[in-house]
Amino acid sequence: MPEGFLWGGALAANQTEGGWNEGGRGMSHSDLIPQGSDRWDVMFGRQKPVDDPDRLYPCRWGNDFFHHWHEDVELFAEMGFKCLRLSICWSRIFPTGMEAEPNGEGLEFYRQVFEALREHGIEPLVTLSHYDYPLALVERYGGWQSREMIERYAHYVETVGRAYQGLVRYWLTFNEINSVALSYLNAGVTLEDERDRAAVTAAFSHHMFMASARAVEILHKIDPANKVGCMIAAGATYPYRCAPEDVWLAYEEDRGRYFYTDVMAAGAYPAWKLRALEKEGVHVPFEPGDTEYLAEHTVDFISFSYYCSRLVCADDQVIAEKAEGNVFPTLRNPYLKDKETAWKWQIDALGLRVTLAGYHDRYHLPLFIAENGVGGLDALEDGKVHDAYHIDYLRRHILALRDAIVEDGVDLMGYTPWGCIDLVSAGTGEMKKRYGFIFVDKDNEGNGTLNRSKKKSFDWYKQGIA
Ligand code: BGP
Questions:
Q1: What's the Rg (C-alpha) of the chain?
Q2: 165: phi then psi, degrees, rounded to nearest 5
């Protein structure tokens, strides 16, 4: 492995922190994402989020990292982590997103966490925005549909960039920025009217691109040693058949994902995208200077999440069986039918190498695997969790990333498996979908002692890092 490789784990404020009404924190839009069958209607923006006293909103509690972080950081250090990916909750710093002055208590909270990490030699990798925005901003501006959001975000980035100068060197601008194409709420947008979809998507994506470029500029100015990356929900797409139509469809799918890195890493909207938008009659709200600005402030590295590959077929008479997966829909790959997680995500370690090689060959930039892992059903037996399936999944993926480094020459900075401590699932809102090396005693309804216990994978990963 390369010298200084950042082995570690990943988590996000909205799924771990809790303390939603403590420490001067304002309400986040994720505090209104309910558990239940209409969760995806809210996340897709088809249904407006509401505050219903009879519903469960698991992002309000997470795994209570807010009160347990000392202990959690100790456990990460014990595993030998070199890096922890975590996010800042924007509304803990600016409760409505519109204040001129930050909430001192919020700034202090993260300062203590970052200092504790540094004391243990753990490099923080900070996601500036991981699926939560101050609710007041979303209500006032309709999320990223409004260009005004760029200024609010820039003020927030400047504030945390200055506050944590020297403590944090690695930053990510938006978690899984491409997920907004489906999950509108990730752009803080709700849209009941399907007719506006294409125009609204083009607008909020453009504003998020501009904001991401702004973060690159701000953080580089604050400290030229800062490294700023983008973050993509990745996963190579395979054609079901060798029929040229299937191959083209798979190519188009991947090109749709590369669109985001073409803008943020290569610095320009690709020609195919501009033509497609023009054909659809969609106006992208470019302002004078935007093109140059995007070209000038590209990211230093590309990070992504990888859980599984995807499969497409041009003819739904041939295959129509769907599989589950991270954010994006996929067909069920018959070659992976014996390899499925408890949540029916198909396991494909070689797909990680395909994904890594794809980004490397296209952009020649350093890469970071910011998320990877398996959500499973774990039970505590005699104080231990025997999560052999978890070890098996990670082992296969680590071997694949080793091949990418050794055989393909990929410049890989680090690997932070998702949910290194059990947390609330983004997709289902459940606690029982567990990714962690550390078990947290808490159930879907929010009951439990919150006690932390090491799983079998804890010792395995510790040994691996060593
Ligand atoms: C990614 C998100 C994470 C995380 C992960 C696992 O899309 O960035 O926040 O939740 O997926 O997904 P899930 O929680 O649905 O199992």
A1: 21
A2: -55, 130
The model's pTM is 0.97
Classify residue 93 by burial, with Cβ atoms within 10 Å: 0-12, 13-18, 19+: buried
Residue nearest to atom 15 of ligand 1 (CA): 427
Report whether pLDDT(192) > 90: no
Is the C-beta atom of 327 inside 6 A of ligand 1?
yes
Whether the CB-CB separation of 142 and 32 falls below 8 Å is answered with no
What pLDDT score was predicted for residue 259? 98
177 CB less than 6 Å from ligand 1? no
Whole-number Cα distances in Å, 409 to 211, 232, 334, 367 = 32, 21, 30, 11
355 lines ligand 1 (CB under 6 A): no
Which pLDDT score, from 0 to 100, does residue 156 have? 98
Q: What is the mean pLDDT of residues 97-115?
A: 98
pLDDT reading at 193 higher than 80:
no
Report d(CA 267, CA 209) in Å as an integer.
Answer: 10
Q: Whose CA is nearest to atom 4 of ligand 1?
A: 426
Residue positions annotated with a catalytic role: 176, 371
